[in-house]
Description:
CATH architecture: 2-Layer Sandwich
Number of helices: 7
Distance between the termini: 9 Å
CATH class: Alpha Beta
Shape: globular
Strand content: 25-35%
Helix content: 10-25%
Number of strands: 20
Number of domains: 1
CATH superfamily: lpxc deacetylase, domain 2
Bound molecules: zinc ion
Order of helices and strands: EEEEEHEEHEEEEEEHEHEHEEHEHEE
CATH topology: lpxc deacetylase, domain 1
Structural class: alpha/beta
Amino acid sequence: MFVLRSAQGPVSVRASIRHVVPSELCTTLGIGGSLVKTTEHVLAALAGCQIDNAYIEVTADEVPVMDGSAGPFVRLIKAAGVTKQDRQQPYLKIVRPLEVMEGERRVLIKPSTCPRISYAIEYAHPLIQHQTYDFDWTPQAFERDIADARTFGFLHEVEYLWSKGLGKGGSLDNTIVLSERDVMNPSGLRYADECVRHKVLDLIGDFALLGVPVIGHIEAERSGHAMHAKLVERILAETDSWVLLSADERSLSTYPTAHLSVIPDTSTQVAIQTAAGF
Ligand SMILES: [Zn+2]
C-alpha cells in the first residue's frame, strides 16, 4: 500500500493492477489525480524479499530512483527489520498455463511446485545479444543475484528522452547507458548479464501488482512492463487458471512459509511500515 503525503492529507493507493495508470517510462499507480510514479523497483524489493504487507509512504509523486536497481531498497528493508505476523497469507497457485503474445514477444505462466522465472532477451548490441536467466524465487537468491541489477537504456533512446525533457532524473548514476558498442558508465557492468537480470527484477515488481504471491513458472521472451501487466490481468480474469492455497496447503510444497512485514524506517524519503491486513 502506497500512502501519498500531500498538503490535502494522505491518500492511500493499493499496489494493485487496478490502479495502474498508463505510462511509457515507468509503472505509475494512482487514484483520481493522486499519482505515484516509478513504483516498480521498490515493489520488486518487497516482493523479491517475500514481504507481502507494508505501507510505503512517499512525500513526492515519484519513488526515488536510487541507483536504478532494487538493491538500496533491500538494504533499507533489512536495516529496518522484518516482523512475522500471525495472519496467514494465501498463495495463488497456477493450475493451467496462460500466455500473452505479441509477434516474437511473449510471456506465459504455467504450473510449478515453486515460483520460478525464466527470462530471455535479444538485442543487437555486442554486450547483450542473446541473454537468458533462470531464477528460483527465494529471498536469498533475489538479494544475491537480482536486486542490484540496474535499469538499462541505449544512448540514442536516452538522448531522445532528454531532448524531450523526459527522464530528467536519468543519469549514469542510475542507468546503464549503452553506446553503439560499449557501456558508458565508468564503473562498467555489475554482471555480464546485468540486463536480463534487471528484466527479471522488473517482472517481479510487475507481478507484485497481482496482490498475492504466485506459485508458477513464468517464462518471458523479449517482454516488458506492458506485457507483464497483461498477463497479471489475464490471471485475475481467468479464475479457473488458479487456486488459492492456504498456509497449510502451501507448507506441503517447497515454498517458504514465512509471512513478513517491515517495521518503520524514518531515515529515508520512503518509509516502509506494517500494514494492518493483506
Ligand atoms: Zn526496471
